[in-house]
Every structure is written in structure tokens, then in C-alpha cells.
Amino acid sequence: MTTTEAAPAVVPDFGDDEAEARKIVFICSKGNLDMAYPALIMANGALTEGVEVDIFFTFWGLDMINKETVDELQFTMLGNTAMHMPGAAWHIPQGLGGLPGMTSFATRMLKKQIAALDVPDVREFITLLHDMGARLWACKMSYDMAGLTDDDLLDEVEAVINVNEFIDLSDGAQVIFI
Amino acid sequence: MALATLNGREVHVDEEGFLTEYDEWDQELAKVLAANIGVELTDAHWKVLEFVREDFKANGATPTLRRVTNVGGIPTKELFELFPKKPAKKMSYVAGVPKPAGCV
After folding, report:
1. ipTM confidence
2. Where are the alpha helices (DSSP H) in chain B?
3. What's the whole-model pTM score?
């Protein structure tokens, strides 16, 4: 529909007048490459919308902020019944996923597809989110279980915190568990 | 699409108030758009706006923040300082282009 009458200019609502800032907490509990991205992408979107973001890395999710493992996250076809080649509807037999070299093949392919969309790798993404103001936390119990020291964690990590501190900081936030 | 009066002339805008005609934008209009959202334009802002407009013209799409940083050379932190809270939407609004469509 086109109107011919000029109306007073509408100014977009960027939410600057909202009294309470929205806050989202992401819990990253997985260390698979494909499970690392959902939180990273949603956190990025939230930050560009002016939402306060905290990310808590627990169990295998700790691999996303561990210097030794952050670049080594893998994607496996095993256990993923949705697995099919891009553009093809037929599913890849589960047994193929168990063949030697299949996991590194699948990992390479996924990384290529992600890079093709100009989406950063996990390490760069962590830096990006940190620069945008996200606060990153490591889970104390997972950290102790893995026998890590502070030097093992990426510099962007704020601190290692226990569950009580986590419950405290997620007060009033929307929580997304991945 | 509707017509709205901005800076004493009629321009095409969408329902949110974003300009829809690339060529209806000029620097004077940018100052008015910026003032509408409480932003006073400095040289640093102009650098962002110029990149966003040039990139939009070249590629037909509004650059994402990541692209403004990687290709335009403006650090992400700075974008948040220049256009607080919602830099992607705010820079697009002032630059007279649509909101970025990409996710990252």
C-alpha cells in the first residue's frame, strides 16, 4: 500500500527508554562443534540488541574456553539421525559415521560451511563476544574435574565460579541451556 | 512504505521509520536521524556511516557489525560506543539503509 500524504516521521523504538535491561544467560554444556555455535550465535544477536549476556561453560562446554581444545572441537555423524549431505534428502547410514576418519571429515566440512557464511571460528567468536561485552564464566566443578589451571583458559574468561555464584548472577535473567 | 517529512522534505520510510530509498539520504538528513535517536555525529560516526553506505551500494545488503569491523576496520567495541546498545540497527537507521539481514 502506498500513501501519498506525508505523515510525521516515525522514529524507530530502539528500547533506550526501557527502565530494566533485559538479561540472558547461556549455559554451554556441550563440547561438540555443532553444539558450540547455537549459544555463540544467539549471544551475538542478543548483544547487538542491547541485551546483557553472561555465558556459563560447564562439563564439556568447558572445551570451548580451553586454549588446548577450543580449536579442536569436532562434529560427528554418529548418533545424529538427521545427518544428510547439503541439498540431499537421503540420510547417511549411521554405520558410515563410525568409519576411521569420518569424524574429521565431517568436522572439516562443517567448518568449511560455517566459514563460507563468514561466521567466525569458535576462538574468534569468543573474542568477539567478549569485546561486545559478554561475560564468560567457567564452572568450578568441571574445572576441578578436568584438572585445569587459570592458564589453561582463554584470557576472555572472567573467572571460575561455583554453582552458587552462578545462581546468583542469573537472578532475573532468561536462561538458555545448551 | 509511506511518506514522512524529515528535515523539511518528504522521504520514503518503512513502518518503523527506516528510509527505504537509498538516494533520498544526504548528510543533513543523517544529522536529523541521529538527533532523533539521541546521537550527535562525530568524525568517528561519519566513518561508520560512509562505510555502511558504500558497502550497501556495492553489495546490495547492509553490512553486519562483523563486516563493519573486519572490512571497514572499525573495532566492534567502538561501534557499541558510537551507537549504544543496538549498534547494528542504529547505524543502519542513520545511514538510511535497511537493518542488516545476516545473523552474525
Report:
1. 0.79
2. 27-36, 43-59, 65-70, 76-82, 87-95
3. 0.85
